[in-house]
Amino acid sequence: MHSFNLKTEEKFDPRRHVERVLGRVAEGDVTVACWEPGQTSPYHCHPHATEIYFCFEGGGTMRTPEGSVAVVPGSFVVHPPGELHEWITGPARTLLFRVRYGHDMAGRTKDWPSNPDWRPRPEDLEYFTVGG
Known about the structure:
This protein has 132 residues and is mainly beta. It has helices at 6-9, 122-130; strands at residues 18-25, 28-35, 43-45, 48-57, 60-64, 67-71, 76-79, 86-89, 94-104, 108-111. The chain has one domain (6-130): Jelly Rolls.
C-alpha cells in the first residue's frame, strides 16, 4: 500500500513546474505536479502509457488535437497512449495528482513554445517524423 498527503508533498517553483514521483506500482507511478499560474507543459505524448491527471487545487486547460477542456478541482482527464496533450495553468497555483501506467512511460515532445531553451531530442524528432 502507498499513502500520501498531496498538501505535504507539494513544492512550487516560479521558474518551472515541479513533478515528483511519489511511488511506483507495477508498470506505473503516482506523481504530484505543482504549477504556478501561467506555467505550460510541453505539447507531448506517451506512446506506450496512459496518463491520468486529477485536479486537487487550482485549475487550467488541457489541450489535445481534438480541442481543449477546462480542468477544475475535482475533475480529471485521461490521456490514452499516444494522445498529444498540453497543460496550461490558470490564474491560481495548481496541484495535480497524476497516475501513469504502461510498459514504457517515456514521453515524446512535439513542441514547447513557452520554453525558449527547449530543443527536440533525436527520439522526439524520429517519433513525430516516422509516424507518431
